[in-house]
């Protein structure tokens, strides 16, 4: 019998279309607009000024209290602010944190309820429609309904999601990436690569997601090669690759690599994309050791490009990998990861011993 699978994306994606046109369309029937962001990118890119100058007939309500790993109290507070401001539409502007938080704020704005109470209940008021504007090229958050929120008390990252939390529009405008610091840009690129790679290898992958994942990995590797040779990358292509990988994990989820990375971020404060970069070479070895066949396709892409992801990571991180991992309690990290649902999609049977062997 033929393989059965589905593919779904309700997000209308605009690639390099004039922001004024996209926003005019999105905001056309609304007067009160909420904007969720961090403090820096919205000013550095000139986006706040652009909104105020381009749409003088609209009233904007800015909530810029989103931190790098958005917390439960930030999205509850943002939801209250947007509710009190009676906004009709929301623009989420920034990296994955701002987009994830923006989506969560959109549902807490219409549902005045405690975080876990709403998370556990599928009976809720629909969130406020949202347009996502990514300013990094890593998370692909603009393409899915996931909100990764940090619970400080539990020292944990929680995937809050609801079927209605997809952005209505995603606006990919690579000009907004130009103000990104080079190091952060690289970390976000490794995050996008790990989404595509984990999605491709995931137990939940299908032929549709595989095509997107392979193209995403090819674009990213080609750009990492160009970075290695000339320190240059094509931001527009990378942003597209990141959106592709966001659509991939919408169908496949991530795997134990991300779960291990969450521990490095929660406990050691290692930036999310950097944490993934530290883990990618080991994860590939784990898959190879277990005979995961699809690894060959990744190796073929690397051969075609005469460049490998592991070389790229060695190039960029050098012996910092050892330093960054040296203080980590790997047993605790593995215990944490094995309890996350991500590990269920890993393409081999995950055991504590096997994972630990790759960190000795
Ligand atoms: Fe990620």
TrEMBL record:
Pfam families: ADH_Fe_C (PF25137), Fe-ADH (PF00465). One of its GO terms (molecular function) is metal ion binding. CDD domains: PPD-like. Signal peptide: none annotated. InterPro entries: ADH_Fe/GldA (IPR001670), ADH_Fe_C (IPR056798), Alcohol_dehydrogenase_Fe (IPR039697). Residues 188-298 form the Fe-containing alcohol dehydrogenase-like C-terminal domain. Keywords: Oxidoreductase. Residues 10-172 form the Alcohol dehydrogenase iron-type/glycerol dehydrogenase GldA domain. Belongs to the iron-containing alcohol dehydrogenase family. This is Iron-containing alcohol dehydrogenase. It comes from Calditerrivibrio nitroreducens (strain DSM 19672 / NBRC 101217 / Yu37-1).
